[in-house]
Amino acid sequence: MTIASESPEGRSKGKGRDVLEENAPLLPSSRKEDGEFDEFNGASFPGAVFNLSTTIVGAGIMSLPATMKVLGLVPGIVMIVLFAFLAEASIELLIRFSRVGKSVSYGGVMGDSFGNVGRMLLQICVVVNNVGVMIVYMIIIGDVLSGTSSSGVHHSGVLEGWFGEHWWTGRFFVLLVTTLVVFAPLASFKRVDSLSYTSALSVALAVVFVVITAGIAIVKLLNGSIPMPKLFPVIPDLESIWNLFTAVPVLVTAFICHFNVHSIDNELEDSSQIKPIVRTSLALCSTVYIATSFFGYLLFGESTLHDVLANFDANLGIPYSAVFNDVVRVSYAVHLMLVFPMIFHALRINLDGLLFPNARPLSTDNCRFTVISVALLSLIFLAANFIPSIWDAFQFTGATAAVCIGFIFPAAMTIRDPHGIATLRDKLLSVIMIVLAVLSNGIAIYSDASSLFNTEKA
Q: Where would you say this protein principally sits, based on its record (predicted)?
């Protein structure tokens, strides 16, 4: 199987169209007795919006309040809006080149522009990014349910608070049960649209988190029990300037959804809807991000942790504080459980295309499908038990694979312009995108490496 087709013959844009497996397992859900497939009538606009929004609003939202602590509220909110516009621009370029090259996947566009090397680079980056993101999901779920420790202080998990510390409330066992009972069944679906209902629920749970956090912050602000957080960063020395750039990989990761755009597009009844779907999803997610960043940082100020959910373990100073704490944490943990299969879908397809480029379609090979799924779930589960912080994972994936997927690759194919369709404005925007991506993430990597070296030296 390959992830991409450079010229998929006969691809139509309508109800029940057949799309090549190179992009995703898009086979209809059932066979009739005569051996023919039932017709799949196409994904709906709301379902596609929910699926794309679920891809976007994942674990990154939990670190956004921490980016406000680094950047200050005003620059932080401006950066969220800026990255939303850049993400929309890069996806628009990706879709435009896909249409001209008749490619049904991100890998197909990369192959059209840079050959097999480009396709393989994309597949590697998607694998690295998605593995990193799903490890973060598991870390957060473990933090929420089993607790976490930061700077020598233990923040109790929900299960610890309810039942006390036992072996069955520990991180390893809780994540094992979550993997077997939740992730494995949801990861077994072969078509993205099968997840539209769980995606809608996951978006609703994210909104619940935002509404409760905003309500608590506003009540405490009106009571005068929390100070107004800093609007701009404090920059006493050169090191603090470098530290500002550590927020960039988190913001990059927060808007990465490019690897699922083609899967969603290919299942639409009317593929001309993909651009308004992208804009609607980005607008919805940006609103959620801004609200979460503002109210999360407002609520906890300089005590905001890298995973803000871990802050919801203490008395918030309002009536029914314990109830609100548990509702916030559990709702978002369930949200991440429902986001997981959307990210896993793209990961499995890209890894299969990387390892078995000439094999038959993954959807038709249950043995290969099962082996790859089990291997990936096992790897992610084990890594989540050994990586201590979501900030560490975000810094690595956001500054490397994610920035390539979201900005560098779409900009590079625009500059190369194999079909001669890019305007001067497109190429200027692409140059700016690449320069900003390389510069800011390079500084972020340098800053993180320096901090790690200084910590170990001390």
A: membrane
